[in-house]
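Consider today's protein:

***
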Amino acid sequence: EVQLVESGGGLVQPGESLRLSCAASGFTFSNTYMSWGRQAPGKGLEWISGIGSGGTNTYYKDSVKGRFTISRDNAKNTLYLQLNSLKTEDTAMYYCARGFGPNSVRGQGTQVTVSS
């Protein structure tokens, strides 16, 4: 059974940072494209970043490019998302996913709230 467990969310002020983690199990993580999506209150799910199995092929949505960094540790079956220079508009539930897009399997999410 595929399991994805996100952690690391919280309440921060604008300009601060967070590091999200996603512990994966139930599939061959090291061979799998992984991604992060988020859903803000009242909005649809958007896919903001992805990373290839080797860790060198990355994708960022323009709204997070230069501020967020995706990475992975295949030895630990863990996906990360470093969130820097957070803005109020980054407030959302963040999900990690096996694959990319609306048909991907995702976890339960971790809440990120950016507020002064």
